[in-house]
Amino acid sequence: MPASEWMPRWIRANGLDFSILEAGEGPLVLCLHGFPDTAWNMRPLLSALAAAGYRAVAPFMRGYAPSSLAADDDYRATTLARDALALVEALGEQRAFIVGHDWGAITAYLAAATEPEKVRGIVTAAIPHLRRFLLRPTLRQLYRSRYIGFFQLRGIPERRIVADDFRSLRGLIHRWSPSWKFTEEEFAPLKSGFSDPARLRAALTYYRDLPKTLLNPKNKALILGKLPVPARVIRGTEDGCIGAEMFEGQDDCFGAGYELITMKGAGHFMQCEQPEQFAAHVLGFLDQQK
């Protein structure tokens, strides 16, 4: 579908108004973007899913333009999971597949753990199971994840990103996906959204809300328990954000079937770098679950 033909529409879920992109008819597949990204980069996947007989929907995550900002400033990962589950219901479905990249992957893990009866299976991109990531990080991974500590400094990252005309954000994307030569046209939706201070702050609050989410004992089972639905995890060999070693030794984190897929030459934003191959991996999993 040409870019000019994509017309977002609005849907109400979990107390917020979400802007969504959608295509096709059939079993519902919810496609969730991460940081720094938007639902626009899910369009190749949506088209491939629609052509294969699925109903594909990509929401702009809470706080990301043009979806609503959270009036209560709640951007906890557990709240993102409730957003995803509420979107399934608002779309008139009882169950759905969830495909998530980066923060979308974290959302997929937690949504499946929260209400597994609503999730037929998940495909996560660039993020291992949270138990593997949190309990056994390598020293190299702690260094790669240093940006999370920087994002905790309220106000400072926002000022830096805007002051250098988003060069630092471009640099982050390049470090995470060194072979992806993204264009200014591809970067434009992200720059436009984050030019609004409230939107940029919301995206960074995802990270700032992490400590309260992880330290809440009520979330222990959701975060550390075995995933109760089938899963396919996709990683890229050139990912500068999450190292390949972080995806090893996580078989015991999955309780309903698990497969690890490696995309050679792909970095963190694999769905943008190799969209056809990424879609094929997603469809391969979905078709297995029929």
List keywords for this structure.
290 residues; alpha/beta; Rossmann fold; eight-stranded mixed beta sheet; 42% helix
Short structural description:
The protein is α/β, with parallel strands linked by helices and 290 residues long. It is 42% helix and 17% strand.
Description:
The chain is α/β, with parallel strands linked by helices and 290 residues long. It has a single domain, classed as Rossmann fold (3-Layer(aba) Sandwich), CATH 3.40.50.1820. Helices cover 42% and strands 17% of the residues. The chain has helices at 43-51, 77-90, 103-114, 130-135, 139-144, 146-151, 156-163, 167-176, 184-194, 197-208, 210-214, 220-224, 270-273, 275-288; strands spanning 9-13, 16-23, 28-32, 55-59, 96-101, 119-125, 231-236, 258-263. An 8-stranded mixed β-sheet has the order 1-2-4-3-5-6-7-8, with helices on both faces. The longest helix is centred in the first third of the chain and has 14 residues, at 77-90. The two termini are 26 Å apart.
Helix content: 40-55%
Q: Mean pLDDT, as a whole number?
A: 96
The chain-level structural class is: alpha/beta
Shape assignment: globular
User: Could you state the order of secondary-structure elements as H and E?
Assistant: EEEHEHEHEHHHHHHHHHEEHH
Low-pLDDT ranges: none
Structurally, how many domains make up the residues? 1
Helical run tally: 14
CATH architecture: 3-Layer(aba) Sandwich
Radius of gyration: 17 Å
Q: How far is it from the N-terminal to the C-terminal residue, by CA? A: 26 Å
